[in-house]
Amino acid sequence: MIVVELRKMFRRPRTWATIGVLNALPVLVALLLVLTDLAPRAGEGPPFLSAVLRNGALYPLAALAIVLPLFLPIAVAVVAGDSIAGEAQAGTLRYLLARPAGRTRLLVAKLVAVLAFVVVTVVVVAGVGYVLGSTLFDAQPVGGTSVSGTSLTSAELTGRTVLAIGYVAVSMLGVAAFALFFSTLTDSPLGATMGALAVLVASSLLFTLDAASPIAPYLPTRYWLAFVDLFRDPIQWRDITRGLALQGVYVGVLLAAAWANFTTKDVTS
Questions:
Q1: CA gyration radius for the chain?
Q2: What is the pLDDT of residues 215-269, one digit of tens each?
Q3: Number of domains in the chain
Q4: In contact, 34 and 136? CB cutoff 8 Å
Q5: pTM: predicted TM-score of the whole model, two decimal places
Q6: Residue 34 domain flag
Q7: Distance of alpha carbon 26 from alpha carbon 207, whole angstroms
Q8: Domain range for residue 23?
Q9: CA-to-CA separations, 64 to 16, 39, 58, 87, in angstroms, rounded
């Protein structure tokens, strides 16, 4: 069943169209930085942008930061929200459940397919970012420069990039868990997607309010950009570990709630 769901996911033109649209923004930003005078000179301006301009091998980090606040969560929420609710809306869910596989296996297969989409999307964005950075900016073939301004070996830079990709994928798994949970509550994929996005928008807005500071450390979007700390020297692990732990709690609770609801609800569509 997992193989079937993976085939369905990656044979859909809209899956690859979504990934293509996500990569359009990092491409546009890179071209604007190169072709216009918007970018400061290397070594000037904000430390993060300055580091990217000094070493294009860091542009995968910039590409992830560009799509992470809005576009990547939307894509993940749409795919995860459609996983169960889409089958119900199309009237195929009851036929899927008529198989001897059972509801738990179906839910697991849907989750694995969504997770595969998240990983592939994040890897493609980082890969496109690396190609852009090495082509358009001053990529340093041996080693690189950290956000802190110190030198990194090529092995360190590669290892930290892999860790950043994993961290972003875990963060997006939290988004998928919200959307998958809402997908088990409704027969509308749009409703499930909007429910997940409403939670994320509310989290982002609350994070900017001083009155909400007591709950800020527990908001799902609080540590999304903490992967930048992987490119400091030395690595600052505090927010990274907190972000992983927080997403772990959200994913565990929401998937358990999705399973409890899906395995007990009456399916008529």
A1: 20
A2: 999 999 999 999 989 988 889 999 999 999 999 999 999 999 999 998 887 666 5
A3: 1
A4: yes
A5: 0.87
A6: yes
A7: 25
A8: 2-262
A9: 18, 18, 10, 31
